[in-house]
Write a structure and sequence with these properties.
This protein is α+β, with helices and mostly antiparallel strands. It is about 25% helix and about 40% strand. The protein has 1 helix and 4 strands, in the order αββββ. Strands 2-1-3-4 form a 4-stranded antiparallel sheet, covered by helices on one side.
């Protein structure tokens, strides 16, 4: 988890390209985190961006 959005975005994009799967950058409380898109089921997180290694990044909200 990170408190820096720009750093979290860079890591999310790198993770998506490394895993070759879609990942979601989310916010939980005051921190940002990244999980594969198929693992986001927790209602306590707020998805912010989706990173698809084939299509790029897009805002979720």
């Amino acid at each position: 988890m990170s408190h820096n959005l720009e750093l979290a975005q860079k890591h999310a994009w790198n993770l998506a390209r490394t895993l070759m799967t879609t990942v979601i950058l989310f916010k939980s409380d005051d921190e940002y985190g990244v999980l594969p898109a198929d693992e986001i089921e927790d209602a306590e997180v707020t998805p912010l961006f989706e990173y698809d290694p084939f299509a790029g990044a897009r805002s979720v909200h």
